[in-house]
Design a protein that fits this description.
With about 170 residues, the chain is an alpha/beta fold. It contains six helices and five strands.
Length: about 170
Amino acid sequence: MIHVSSLSGLADVAVMLGSFDLLTLLSPSATAPDWSGLAHERHLQLAFHDIVVPTPGLIAPGINTLQAILDFGRVGMAERPMLVHCWAGISRSSAAAYAIACDRNPGFERAIADELRRRSPYVTPNKLMVQLADELLGRGGVMVDAIARIGRGAEAFEGAPYQLPVVWPI
């Protein structure tokens, strides 16, 4: 399973999991918490803003960002779960979880998007991240279309933690 959380919900999910791999997606200006109390095996921290179009003065996710996310998702998940978080647990983390699940399950992009929506009414995966993952994985727009089809999530300041299966069909 891929576990998705906001920064504020991270500690509770981490305690529940025990051992896990941690993927942190925060803005460059965010103060990094002390991760030493978490029982993570591997940790990748990427810093970029939650934007969907390049904006002067802000750092957009790029192709290298998505490649790093996919590479991180390809290692270790057979041994332990992955915990992905961003600030609110709505956009960056959901896009990363979706990309990782799609990478492992070609042909299930639409089912994964539907399940993402079923498991969290709040998620609105970052469209630029999804587009970049779609390009890297050679999915010809299928991932972009699947996320567009589920639409924007319910308005929320922060999403509740949820899990997304990593093996399909479920």
